[in-house]
Each structure stands twice: as C-alpha cells, then as structure tokens.
Amino acid sequence: MSATGSPSSRDSAAGAPPGPQGIRIDCGWTLDARRAAFQETASLLAVADLHLGYAWAQRSRGLLLPVDTPDTSTDRLAELCNAYQPRTVVILGDLIHRATALEALRPVLETFCAALQGRDVVLCSGNHDRGIRPLIARWQLPIRAVEGLDSGRFHLRHGDDPHPEHPAEPFTLAGDTSFVVQGHEHPALELGDGRLTRVRVPCFLTSDDTLLLPAFSDWASGCRVGRDPFLGSRARGTRFHTAYACMGPRLLPIPLDVRTGAIRRSSQPPGPGPTSRSQPRRRSG
User: Fold this and answer.
1) pTM across the whole model
2) In a domain? residue 269
3) Range of 205's domain?
4) How far does CA 206 lie from the centroid of its chain?
5) Looking at the domain assignment, is residue 279 inside a domain?
6) How many C-alpha atoms does 106 have within 13 Å on its Cβ side?
7) How many domains does the chain have?
8) Contact assessment for residue 213 and residue 204, using Cβ atoms and an 8 Å cutoff
9) Which residues of the chain are under the pLDDT cut of 70?
10) Cα(267)–Cα(254) distance, rounded to whole angstroms?
11) What is the dihedral of CA 10, 117, 149, 75, to 10 degrees?
12) Is residue 14 part of a domain?
C-alpha cells in the first residue's frame, strides 16, 4: 500500500491544518479519511450507509426524536465530489433509513440529488432501501437503483443477505469480477489508552478479495471489529487482514489477526486524549 494526500489536502507546511488523508491500497482503491473510497480508473466515488431521514423515519413510527439536528452527509459528500470530481457516485446501500412516502423526506432527497447534479448517481439498494424505487419514480429523482454494480473486476453491493420473504440465489461472482466492495456492517474499532478512556471510530476493512466501507452517517455507532458479529454472510466469511481507522483527517492502518478479526496486540495504537468521545450508539445495519 502507499499513503498519499487526498486531492483536497491543504499545505500544512504553510501553517494550515492537515487536509484529509487518502491511502491507495493494493487493489487500486484510494481510501479517504472522510469515509469514502475512490476508484480512479472508473472515476467512481463510493460511500455506504447514509441513512438519510433517520429522525423523520423514527417519528413516523411514534418515536419523538428531534428533527432539528443537522445531518451533514449531503454536504460532506458534495465536498468529496469537489475533491475527486468523479463521474459516478455509488451509494453502497441504505441511502435512507426507511422508504416511506413522508413529505418531509422528499426535500431531503431532492437536496441530496441537487448537491450531486451532473454526476451519475447509482444506489446499490440495501435492506433499508426496500420500497425506494416507487419513491424515486414518484418524485422524479435522478437516482439509478440497482441490486449491484460491476466495474471492471470489482463488484459493488450493499452486503445484506436475501430477505427471508424474498429468497434469492446465493451470492456468487460472475465472469472476471473477483473483488467485492460493500457496506452494511458499519465497521468500527474501539480504541483505548489501557486505563479509562475508550473511543469508537469508524474504519475500513480489507482482505484479499473484499473492501468493507464504514458508515457515512454520523449517527451510526458501528459494529466493533473483533467483538460484535457481522450481519451478512460475506463479511462473516471473510478474513480481514487490515483495518484503516478514520482518526479525524488521518487514516491509521492497523493489522488484524485474520483468525479472530481482532487488533494484533503488538499493533494496538495509543489511545486518544481524554476529551475524545465515542459516536452515538445506534446499530441498525
């Protein structure tokens, strides 16, 4: 692997804070500390699990959550598009938290599409997106919803298993597609100083044939790598060898024990400072 600054990196030598870091890994993808991955050959930017409209979806179920807390996902994705200038933006599932025809959800999705205007937006539908296609058609949103997307030797998908009520053939790779890029699991690492302070940070996970993206949503606390079980069979059956922890604007590569998925003892990084906080605790896949 090789570490490189992302296209939006600022000149720290001039006294400015360091810009977000990108690391190009062996399979050809560049991982960005802002929880996105870029494939230069295809000019393709991928993010996973935005869960837009989370508060509105919960209120529709009778849970009176506040709806005035800003969701920064759209603005952050627009910033990434300005940095990488991709032709295609692929959402690896769970664009929204619940596919329901709430009028409050419509402007959220319209604002999202407007921020990505001029780019091909593809949604690899996830378990939370079931029922989104009629909404896309009704609201005339420029989003192409698919089950999965092949790009060269890469197969992009959400990562959930078939729903029990809608059985499907077991997931297989066809042709020369040999590497899976997916979301769904919300991977995160729990790091600590060995005493009192612990922090949960989102991370990428890589193996010889799989790249697992962290949740792009700020509300997703994540599956603790090496401690919590993965939801999907693909992730459960994969031996990940490296995690890339998203530590603010930096990425921290951490070797994993391929047998257990846990951080190798000799690779346990020093814990963050005492003011660090973990992400809000929500796990929905």
Assistant:
1) 0.81
2) no
3) 2-6+19-159+177-264
4) 13
5) no
6) 9
7) 1
8) yes
9) 1-18, 54-70, 97-102, 163-177, 221, 265-285
10) 6
11) 50
12) no
